């Protein structure tokens, strides 16, 4: 019965729910002498929960089901207990609204007892129950905020189970934190890890209320001689940093920071690992607590020192450095002369580059170090540019070395490791190019030589090609028209990638790269467009290509049209036909995945129309668009009245209306006199569901259409 319930559509089984439920609950009762039968029955109940909604609505039946499951948590069989708590987790996910009475009468006590169970499998499920409560109540909090924003009442209310249970469950969770495995495997889910996750979710769920019960535990144990107590205290501290008000947390972090930094030299690896993670959380969530003149020198010294430690600690140190860079450094594109990290920048980069010379990548530590270099480069101030340029030269040297080693690679593991290293190097190169922008031009020739050599290597992996394309995309944006000298060598490689629709992620990146090249080269892209357009249209019609690439291809038509202007007229007939086909796709109102996909497809169509209209605007070829405009307006109308249209799609169609008004003016006055157009523009300007950017676009489109079409 359980397998049938798991594999069959709930709608199909609903008609048989009474018979199935009777059989299942009968087998799950405490009177059942055979514990294996009872276990199978509980598992079958778990799989039947989705289609017994009507039974759960009836109080008598619901009471009986809950009684049977609660009694099963007390079985002498641990397997039955585990299954019973798993069942309670699923019930909480599916029927939260019905749980108030049962929480008060039984579930608080049963789950706390379950968390204390000697069998870790039982304890894990009991902890998972409270993690699930937190997840549900955080969702309800979001629903409440959304409802208030819309001026409505929420459909469901939260019973605040997590907050009510804090005093009962926190002491148990804190005790479980001290039950760490001596040599635990990172892939193994332990009770202490589950407790830390649950504590973190509680903090997000109840906010400030978590602090008062947890802080005494931290203060009592953070310098305890027993490493388990020390590690648990640090883990508890790190776990409550997201949720409570930063103003309340700040004095606690100020007080703890010097102790935490000094604990990076603890004698126990477990403790150092958790300290490094907690420092990363502080850097990510509470950067204002880190005073550059007081803390930064010691903090960075401790994190760089941690690079000499075990691979797991290295990973957390790198993550902390990345968070520091993102929080203290300038945003990309901001012209900032210096930052608090500038004085440490070269030292950190030198240490990370030195670390990445190692040949192995245990626990992904080398990958983490390259990601840290990448983020530091991206978030660096202007006074760090010479160091970023030196990073590029080092990365190019290393890429050349990896290519020279190709012939020595014998087995699949070495090939995977080699490919991963090349991807890391290309990731750093890409971010350095983005950061340096025009300053990259003096070493652009060498970059293209190395990357083209890599792309022409027959033994490369598809992921390496993807990363190489991203690097070239960054170079295209940096060099703009100067990229033209590389186009002849590179476009054939791009065409080859488009001819392999099975590698859809590579195709997706290649399509984006065509857009980058067109934006960079403008009309100089025209000689390459015949081949590219042919491949793009072929891919759109391919049954093999993953559907996620198709909206990007439609959008790419707009990029090409915008770049080559009137030269696009030769492709107009086929492109407009393809856009009409794509625009005719509809989504079933109950299929949310399809609704999302169709919205993305529509957005690709609109971006194509915008590019074509703007590209042909002001040229004699504009008139070629006139026969298609009735259909374009019908397409916009379909989106305008669609209740599922997104903010960005609404903004796009309104922008297109404005472009059409500017381009054709009085020629399309009749099309602009349709009643739905002012309704759409008014809704976008006044509805609280739309962002300020959409409102601004709507005001502009209204003004443009009134002036140009004399509506």
Question: SSE layout and pairings?
Answer:
Blueprint: H1 2-7, H2 10-13, H3 17-28, H4 35-48, H5 53-57, H6 59-72, H7 78-95, H8 100-115, H9 120-149, H10 161-177, H11 191-206, H12 211-221, H13 227-239, H14 246-262, H15 269-285, H16 292-305, H17 311-328, H18 342-355, H19 365-378, H20 385-404, H21 412-436, H22 444-455, H23 462-479, H24 484-498, H25 504-521, H26 526-540, H27 550-564, H28 572-583, H29 592-616, H30 629-640, H31 647-664, H32 669-672, H33 676-686, H34 692-709
Helix pairs in contact: 3-4, 4-7, 7-9, 8-9, 8-10, 9-11, 10-11, 11-13, 12-13, 13-15, 14-15, 14-16, 15-17, 17-19, 18-19, 19-21, 20-21, 20-22, 21-23, 22-23, 23-25, 24-25, 24-26, 25-27, 26-27, 27-29, 29-31, 30-31, 31-34, 33-34
Subcellular location: Cytoplasm
Main location: cytoplasm
Organism: Rhizopus stolonifer (Rhizopus nigricans)
What does this structure look like?
This protein has 711 residues and is mainly α. Among the domains are: 245-321, Alpha Horseshoe (Leucine-rich Repeat Variant), CATH 1.25.10; 329-494. It has 34 helices and no strands. It has helices spanning 2-7, 10-13, 17-28, 35-48, 53-57, 59-72, 78-95, 100-115, 120-149, 161-177, 191-206, 211-221, 227-239, 246-262, 269-285, 292-305, 311-328, 342-355, 365-378, 385-404, 412-436, 444-455, 462-479, 484-498, 504-521, 526-540, 550-564, 572-583, 592-616, 629-640, 647-664, 669-672, 676-686, 692-709. Helix 20 runs antiparallel to helix 21 and helix 25 runs parallel beside helix 27 (550-564). It is found in: Cytoplasm. Keywords: Cytoplasm, Protein transport, Repeat, Transport.
């Amino acid at each position: 019965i359980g397998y049938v319930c798991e594999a069959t559509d709930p709608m199909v089984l609903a008609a048989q729910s009474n018979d199935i439920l009777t059989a299942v609950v009968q087998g799950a009762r405490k009177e059942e002498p055979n514990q294996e039968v009872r276990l199978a029955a509980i598992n079958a109940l778990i799989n039947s929960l989705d289609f017994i909604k009507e039974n759960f609505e009836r109080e008598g039946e619901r009471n009986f089901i809950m009684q049977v499951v609660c009694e099963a948590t007390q079985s002498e069989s641990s397997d039955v207990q585990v299954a019973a708590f798993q069942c309670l987790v699923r019930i909480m996910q599916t029927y939260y609204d019905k749980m108030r009475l049962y929480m008060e009468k039984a579930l608080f006590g049963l789950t706390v007892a379950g968390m204390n169970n000697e069998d870790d499998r039982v304890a894990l499920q009991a902890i998972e129950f409270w993690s699930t409560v937190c997840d549900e109540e955080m969702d309800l909090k979001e629903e409440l905020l959304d409802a208030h924003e819309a001026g409505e009442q929420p459909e469901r209310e939260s019973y605040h189970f997590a907050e009510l249970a804090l005093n009962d469950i926190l002491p148990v969770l804190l005790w479980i934190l001290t039950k760490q495995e001596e040599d635990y495997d990172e892939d193994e889910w332990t009770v202490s890890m589950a407790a830390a996750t649950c504590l973190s979710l509680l903090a997000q769920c109840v906010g400030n209320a978590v602090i008062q019960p947890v802080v005494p535990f931290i203060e009592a144990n953070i310098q305890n001689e027993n490493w388990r107590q020390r590690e648990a205290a640090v883990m508890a501290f790190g776990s409550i940093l997201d949720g409570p008000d930063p103003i309340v947390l700040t004095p606690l972090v100020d007080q703890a920071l010097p102790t935490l930094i000094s604990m990076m030299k603890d004698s126990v690896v477990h403790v150092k690992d958790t300290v490094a993670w907690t420092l990363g959380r502080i850097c990510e969530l509470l950067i204002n607590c880190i005073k550059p003149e007081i803390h930064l020198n010691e903090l960075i010294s401790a994190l760089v020192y941690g690079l000499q430690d075990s691979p797991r600690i290295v990973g957390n140190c790198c993550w902390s450095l990345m968070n520091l860079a993102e929080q203290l450094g300038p945003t990309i594109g901001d012209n900032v002369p210096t930052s608090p990290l500038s004085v440490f920048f070269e030292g950190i980069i030198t240490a990370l580059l030195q670390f990445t010379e190692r040949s192995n990548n245990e626990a992904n530590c080398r990958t983490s170090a390259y990601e840290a270099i990448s983020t530091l480069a991206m978030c660096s101030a202007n006074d760090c540019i010479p160091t970023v340029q030196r990073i590029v030269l080092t990365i190019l040297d290393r890429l050349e070395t990896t290519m020279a080693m190709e012939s020595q690679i014998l087995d699949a593991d070495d090939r995977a490791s080699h490919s991963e290293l090349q991807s890391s190097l290309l990731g750093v190169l890409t971010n350095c190019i983005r950061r340096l922008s025009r300053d990259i031009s003096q070493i652009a020739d060498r970059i293209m030589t190395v990357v083209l050599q890599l792309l022409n290597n027959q033994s490369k992996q598809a992921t390496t090609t993807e990363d190489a394309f991203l690097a070239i995309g960054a170079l295209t944006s940096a060099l703009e028209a100067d990229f033209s000298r590389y186009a002849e060598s590179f476009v054939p490689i791009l065409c080859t990638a488009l001819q392999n629709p099975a590698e859809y992620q590579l195709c997706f990146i290649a399509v984006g790269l065509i857009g980058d090249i067109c934006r960079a080269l403008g009309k100089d892209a025209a000689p390459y467009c015949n081949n590219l357009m042919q491949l793009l249209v072929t891919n759109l019609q391919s049954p093999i290509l993953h559907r996620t690439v198709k909206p990007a291809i439609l959008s790419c038509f707009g990029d090409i049209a915008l770049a080559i202007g009137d030269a696009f007229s030769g492709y107009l007939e086929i492109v407009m036909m393809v856009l009409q086909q794509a625009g005719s796709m509809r989504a079933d109102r109950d299929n949310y995945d399809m609704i999302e996909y169709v919205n993305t497809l529509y957005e690709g169509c609109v971006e194509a129309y915008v590019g074509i209209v703007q590209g042909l605007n002001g040229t004699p070829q504009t008139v070629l668009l006139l026969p298609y405009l009735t259909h374009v307006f019908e397409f916009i109308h379909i989106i305008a009245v669609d209740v599922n249209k997104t903010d960005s799609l609404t903004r796009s169609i309104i922008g297109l209306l404005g472009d059409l008004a500017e381009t054709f003016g009085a020629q399309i006055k009749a099309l602009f006199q349709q009643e739905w157009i002012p309704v759409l523009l008014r809704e976008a300007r006044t509805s609280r569901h739309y962002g300020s950017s959409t409102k601004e676009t709507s005001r502009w489109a209204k003004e443009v259409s009134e002036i140009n079409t004399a509506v």
